[in-house]
Amino acid sequence: MSANALAMSWEEWVRHDATSLAALVRGGQLAAREVTAQAAAGVARVNGTLNGVLEVFDDVVADPSVDRPDRAGRLYGVPMFLKDLGSRLKGRRQESGTRLMAGNVAKDTDPLVENFLSAGLVPMGRSTCPEFGMTFDTATSYLGHVHVTRNPWNTARTPGGSSGGSAAMVAAGVTPISMASDGGGSTRIPASFCGLVGLKASRGRMAMPLAHSEFTWRIAVEGVVTRSVRDTAVAMDYLTRMPNGGTFYPMQRFEGSYAEAIGQAPGRLRVALSTGTWGRPGQCDPEVAERVRGLGRLLETLRHDVAEIDDARICDWDAMWNGYITQWICGRVLYQPIAETGGMDGAGMLAALTPMVRRHFEAAQRYSTLDLYKAMACNNVVTRGFGRTMDAWDLLLCPTLAIRVPEANGPYSLLNDEPLDGWIEKLSSACRYTMPGNESGLPGISIPVGFDSDGLPVGAMLYANFGREDLLLRVAAQIEAAKPEWFARTPKLSVVTPD
């Protein structure tokens, strides 16, 4: 596509979020085909450097109605990328960043993707993830070469993960919304590293893929990354639709509209602030901690009551980390049947896995059924501890990550080969604020709070009580209105400036 054939200039394109793009389509100023074609042109402009897109669906670019997005959906005509992990679209490849699933084509469409289509979103391709989503550095080697997804704010750094490809494309302005999922921070971390909005909903709020349930994989929740709070809210009105029998963990439906909720003042809230250790070694990076305290000061000007608390009182951190890490490692036994389905024996499977994933699988063999029951007992302790904390406070404010943005294919890459215990400690220490949300099931949202001394985004996170995504979105919208300069910023490398 030539520049003259574009529906609008790139400078105008990046000023639109998904809601405003869809309004142009609904009003007849743009056709869905024009919007999808411009997004495809955006991929061509930046993906050679960012490596965030594995595949563009050419048939969708030619005809956005191929997968039947609902024309009545509020986001009709807006293109998005499906993360190459988790919920699937029938007839499209999903390889989960691993040689064990190379060439795999989905036989069914999962409920969450049905909800994307109900919103009118147009899945136009696949975005990258690390192997099985097991870290926040989106680097793989399953394609026969090292494939590193990069951050558009600084291409030497990672965009985070495991939803790194989606975040890189949204931040670079290719499309304003894309699929994410979160088993340890994989929506919130790339949102933080790329200056985006990333909401992890409560356990049981979103439909799981057909092959999973909250019982077998209690820590994972899917969703989106966006450039605006309202896009996340509008998407939530569709993504929270639950098919009958579609959850092991039924949650009362939110009566109302998330998109309407963000226009309502949240009232005066009790906000607990913590930048503590949360049971992990080392301290939070001081620049990150200061940005979070800055948000605390802003919340005070917005007439909320903010107090810094002793993080030792939030929950039993020994139970938290014992339970979470056991679940994290034990789940890797599922690689064996995946390999067998692909015709691999045990030796072939181990040879196919990247080094740190292989070390996880080997470690999983050492756990017993009793270990899993102990982990579930730990979960009981953790959820009740967080419940007591959220009885005392309306919101819990903390950093999204304890670190600033690391290098791409750096210390958290699955391509490294080092002792597992040290790698897990390093990973969990960085993710000390996100992983407890997955173990407890609390909803949490990462929002941008400015930049560090390297000019890279910093994210802060707000937790609310179980089922209170509406409150998180109201407060996030209040912050966005007070500090618009923190949101929807255009990075150094984008569709506007691809070089």
Explain how this protein is built.
With 499 residues, the protein is of the alpha+beta class. The chain has one domain: Amidase signature (AS) enzymes, CATH 3.90.1300. The protein has 18 helices and 13 strands. It has helices at 10-13, 18-26, 32-50, 58-62, 111-118, 164-171, 188-194, 229-239, 258-261, 286-301, 317-330, 335-341, 346-352, 355-364, 369-392, 420-430, 435-440, 469-482; strands at 53-56, 79-83, 122-127, 139-140, 147-148, 177-182, 197-200, 221-226, 270-273, 305-308, 395-399, 444-451, 457-464. The strands form 3 sheets. Strands 6-8-7-12-13-11-9-10 form an 8-stranded mixed sheet, with helices on both faces. A 3-stranded mixed sheet has the order 1-3-2. Strands 4-5 form a two-stranded antiparallel ribbon. The chain is globular and about 60 Å long. The two termini are 18 Å apart.
Short description:
The chain is an alpha+beta fold. 37% of the residues lie in helices and 13% in strands. Strands 6-8-7-12-13-11-9-10 form an eight-stranded mixed sheet, sandwiched between helices. It has a three-stranded mixed sheet with strand order 1-3-2. A two-stranded antiparallel ribbon has the order 4-5.
